[in-house]
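Rotation project, supervised by the postdoc (A.L.). Task for the rotation student: set up a whole-complex structure prediction and record inputs and outputs verbatim in this book. Inputs entered:
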Amino acid sequence: MASQSGSGPMRVLVTGGSGLIGKAIEHVVMKDGEKREGEHWIFLSSKDANLMDLEQTRAVFEKHRPTHVIHLAAKVGGLYLHMRENLYFLRDNLRINDNVLQTAHAMGVTKVVSCLSSCIFPDKTTYPIDETMIHNGPPHESNYGYSHAKRMIDVQNRAYFGQYGHRYTAVIPTNVFGPHDNFNEDEGHVLTAIMNKTYKAKRDNTTLNVWGSGKPLRQFIFSMDIGRLMVWVLREYDEVNPIILSVGEEDEVSIQEAVEMIAEALEFKGQIHYDTSLSDGQLKKTANNAKLRRYLPDFTFTPLREGIKLTCDWFVKNYEHART
Amino acid sequence: MTSQSVSGPMRVLVTGGSGLIGKAIEQVVMKDGEKREGEQWIFLSSKDANLVDLEQTRAVFEKHRPTHVIHLAAKVGGLYLHMRENLYFLRDNLRINDNVLQTAHEMGVTKVVSCLSSCIFPDKTTYPIDETMIHNGPPHESNYGYSHAKRMIDVQNRAYFGQYGHRYTAVIPTNVFGPHDNFNEDEGHVLTAIMNKTYKAKRDNTTLNVWGSGKPLRQFIFSMDIGRLMVWVLREYDEVNPIILSVGEEDEVSIQEAVEMIAEALEFKGQIHYDTSMSDGQLKKTANNAKLTRYLPDFTFTPLREGIKLTCDWFVKNYDHART
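Outputs recorded:
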């Protein structure tokens, strides 16, 4: 696959730059040496522009004149908020995505990499899931508004390619975790919610209560790996069709194994109780990472134990301003 | 099912009122006696408002202050235009539909009935198709932009119901034909395209060339029947889930049978040639009208021969300004 030929160094605009994945890309680019000579990387947050507003979107594109865009910005929320407000998540995300993609087109941006989510896959499906299956059935009822808006990005990408030859594309991460994540016990991702609970259980000398049996299996991917992979996608991945970013099926772990790694990382030695009265969700929802493996056979993921340790260390150090 | 309880008579705004279905509703309401005491029915065309523009949409809603909306307006085109411009059909129709539904919500419209299309169903599917299957796979490649935008109406309807309790709904007609249709030989619907060809073949004393073998089976529904049914949907159908408007499977006819009815209606006595080198499309794409017959077991469809005769008579009489 040919790498992106740009005339001159890239000016990369990252929308949603202050979130979990945005911060990981920033770390990888600014601190880990991924940035190349002459490149500019601009990390936007909602303070810089409300992307629901076309004029503000245009203004921020005109200010920075990007050649490339990594589009991470979205209206997101916890499970209960989504269930109550599917209309807002649908309309707002459709609007943000249309503003960003159309403005990118209008301003001659070479490439846009958007971010889908494994939660948008069909609710009723066979496993493992792969990139070709996104539209094969309705998404889960709880966040269908968000899911349909995200799926539409894939349709828009194909349409921009068909109409103008733009190679706008998208990635589909599975369960990402890392520094700057949402650690809220009710709304955060499973690992970071448990890190928060474990931190408090240790601090308050109580039992760690984990929802569910601990048996479900998940593919977890450390945010820094996503950061490195997204920079690769931006530079090298030429397809318009999306690509799943995930560890392989062989690296699935049970929630219980992950909990034990978290307890070890935080040196929690108290009781761990699995509340089996609470729902497990799906036992297995394996995503197929064969496409990624075909492109990058030698890519080494951060071992889960290490990613958990780094995240827990960050959490303890930054507890005061972490999203809890 | 309870009928819609309104405080006072309805003011019904029909967007896309100058098209095939809009004209049929107008006939049924204004000439055939469906209009009730005190009701107002306003038929809009693109001359009255460009619904891609939010301000113009709001202005026309504020001018007419509807209590109900039948939303038929869309960017549509022939096969080849869709294939070339999926992006426009996607973006423009998403924008029109968002403008209409959101403006209806903001202005307290009681009910909106939108119009989907049987062409939006999954390309790979089992038959007969029913209303529950809309999102079960990607639509046909040729007009995926239009199809995704239309499918989104169903998602939006559910979201407006979940968020605000609005009973916005949609109908899914199968193959509609009638006066004011598109009779263009290349881009029109199959029956009306053949009516045009037959008219010319008779006039010019040439062979009537029909594309394909004539063997495919289709469910045709006369536009006046759709008109009557849509008025019923507006008044009586309370579900948010969409409803297929079609004759039953037992009333499927082959293209050849329909061609012979057209030839008879136009008194064409020349040669009819079936060009089997041209694609037939699908042999059968039966839509299940069980939901409709459950609600209206006694509804009588206009016999196809009669609908064809009425349409041919209209075409001959209005040839100079018909859409050819």
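Student's summary: The two ends of chain A are 42 Å apart (CA to CA).
Supervisor addendum: Chain A touches chain B through 26 residues (CB under 8 Å).
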